[in-house]
Structures are given as C-alpha cells and as structure tokens.
Amino acid sequence: MARPMGAVRLKKTNPLTLAVGAALCIFILYFLLGSSTPDFSASRKASAASHPLSPPTSPFRKSTGGGKLKPPPVTRYNLNNVTITPKPLENRENILILTPMARFYPEYWDNILRLEYPHELITLGFILPKTKEGNDATRELQKQIAKTQKSGPEKDRFKSIIILREDIDAPLISQDESERHKLKNQKVRRAAMAKARNSLLFSTLGPSTSWILWLDADVVETPPTIIQDLARHDQAIIAPNCFQRFWNSDKKEMDERPYDFNNWQDSDTALEMAKRMGPDEILLEGYSEMATYRTLMAYLFKEDGLLHEELPLDGVGGAALLVKADVHRDGAMFPAFPFYHLIETEGFAKMAKRLGWQPVGLPNYKVGYPPPSGQRY
C-alpha cells in the first residue's frame, strides 16, 4: 500500500528574480506587438547605397498593425547600357582589378598607385587565406589602404576596395616559390586558387563593371598605361608576357627570364596525352615530367618585335589578364576540377573558347615579377 506523500514546502522566490523576469516579458511583448516601422535612418541607407555593389534598399518588415508599409525599392540595371570598348578612358568605363593575395609586396601597391587610369573608376578586390602569412598580408594591405584612401592625395584614391578572406583551408603551409611550384602540389594548389578566384570574382563583379584586370600579388612592374594598352586591342581575353627579375651570377648583374608558362598554344602531343588520361587527371605546363611540346608565349618575346603583336592562345595564366566583363557574365569561370584535363586559368581559357571567346596574348608586352626570395632587387 502506497504511503501518502508529505507536504511539499515551496522555496520563496527572490523578488529581484521576479522583477527581472517581468521586465524581460514586457520587452518581448513590446518587440513582437510594437510598431514595425523600419528604424533604418537616412544616413544608414545612404551609407549602404554609396557602395557600388549595394543598391539603396532596407530590410522589409511585415506590418502587424492596420497600415500598410511600402515595399523596399527594386533597383533595375540595364546592362545593355554598359560599354566595353577599346577606348575605356574616353568612355569612362569602370575597371575591376582583382588580386588573390597570400603575401603583401609593397612594390605591388606602389605599382597600382602609378596606374594612369583614373582611380575613381577603379575598384580593387582582394582575397587572402586565413593563415599566418595571410593574416600578416591582410594587416599590411589594410595599412596601405588606410594611408591611400584617408590621407593620400585625392587622385590616388580608388572608387572602392573590397577585402575577402578565404573560407577554405590553405592547401599548402608555405607560400615559398620552391614549394608552390612543385609538380605534386599543383592540382590541389590550383584547385584552391580556382575557388578563391571564383569567390573573389562573383563577390565583386558589379552591374557597371566593364573590364576585369586579374593581377597577381607578386606582379610588381607593369606599364602605367596597362589598362588602356590592353583594352585598345578590343579582345575578350588578353594576356601580356610575364618575366621575372633575378641575379645573373654569370653576368654579375640583375637579369630577367621567362616566368609564366600558362600562356600557350596547344600541340598535337598535348591533345594526345589528354585523350589517354583518366577523368580526374590534369595536364600541367612547364614540367619536364610532363612534356607537352606546346608553344609557350613566354619564349616568343622579341627585343625588336612589335609591342602590340597578337598571338591566339589556347591557355592563359592569371599573372596579368584583362577580361571583358561579359566573358565572366556569360558563365566563364575558373574550374576547380578537371575541365577537359585543364584547371584554373587554363581551364578558364578552355571554357571561354567553348563559349565563343578567343583568348589572345601579347608576346612583346612585358610585366614583371620580383626576384626569388633571398635575392636582391
């Protein structure tokens, strides 16, 4: 037979606890039932609208009262009005310069500042890895941006600057040149680079962008008129020739050598190699273990050649590359997977060609990389 339960003594509640609970209930009821009128000030709207990628709109809230709220504005962009011409300067066309950055080179920033294209028409976009080197590079980049945008001469200030951080783990611990260029590291490294390029591109490509200039963070020498020089060709995709400075111990002086081997014309050998490859294998250029016998633009420079001589290309590098915005809007991106056995920038060239856009190179128009680590400039 069950015993009857004894009386239960309730503990007296602290008055302070009751007061806090009552205040919290009142706040919740006010939030749920109170006025739903947006409290976004005109200054906040203006601040958002000042960014070229942020149209002037505020969040839409449902009305719980009798009145009806006006819906947020719909911004329409007529991309047919965006010009992409061989005369971008005269037509004041907007340029987007995009740079994946793992290390910060002061010479890169100095070179950007020397560009003779109006800076008020240039938007800069960067993406950096979440590594120690990436954190260091971000801090140095932010210092230079603050110096230029806040206290620098008006003519040096850019239209806007966007910094992104990668949301994927870096495939390589070290960004040393010797480590980055090992054959065994290329597939994973370039797949990660492709993802970074795509994230940067589709986060920054605005409705008024006419041209995208891809520029590596270690390209520290370009002509100040590179944008106008490349755009004058009116090509969908155009790449200059990339060289690296180095200390020539034989000449006892600084010299230069071909550097970017991803600008090439295909060969029968490479095409046959691709046919025998598995679906996940990729062709890479510049390695003796994988001799493709392609025609490399890096070796076609002529000291007395025509500066603006054009060369049709099947593959391109991303060191310096001017692209019409319509190419990317058409869907051409940087595959992070084997695309016809090509990846990243070379895969981009293949994809663009299949969409009807022909890449072109300028073998006698040079841009420069700094010397290898440890060598003087």
Account of the protein in words:
The chain is globular and about 85 Å long. It has helices spanning 15-33, 42-49, 106-113, 132-151, 177-180, 186-204, 226-231, 268-275, 325-329, 344-354; strands spanning 94-100, 122-128, 160-165, 209-215, 237-248, 253-258, 264-265, 295-296, 311-312, 320-324, 359-369. Strands 1, 2, 3, 4, 5, 6, 9, 10 and 11 form a nine-stranded mixed beta sheet that branches. It has a two-stranded antiparallel sheet with strand order 7-8. With 377 residues, it is α/β, with parallel strands linked by helices. It is 29% helix and 18% strand. The protein is built from ten helices and eleven strands. The protein has a single domain, classed as Alpha-Beta Complex (Spore Coat Polysaccharide Biosynthesis Protein SpsA, Chain A). This is Glycosyltransferase family 62 protein. It holds the Pfam family Anp1.
- Helix coverage percent of residues? 25-40%
What about the largest sheet?
9 strands, mixed
Order of helices and strands: HHEHEHEHHEHEEEHEEEHHE
**How many domains?**
1
| Whole-number mean pLDDT | 85
What is the CATH T-level topology? Spore Coat Polysaccharide Biosynthesis Protein SpsA, Chain A
Shape: globular
- The SS-based structural class is alpha/beta
How many beta-strand segments? 11
Indicate the proportion of strand residues.
15-25%
Specify the number of helices: 10
Subcellular location: Golgi apparatus membrane
GO molecular function: alpha-1,6-mannosyltransferase activity
Region (Disordered): 47-72
Pfam families: Anp1
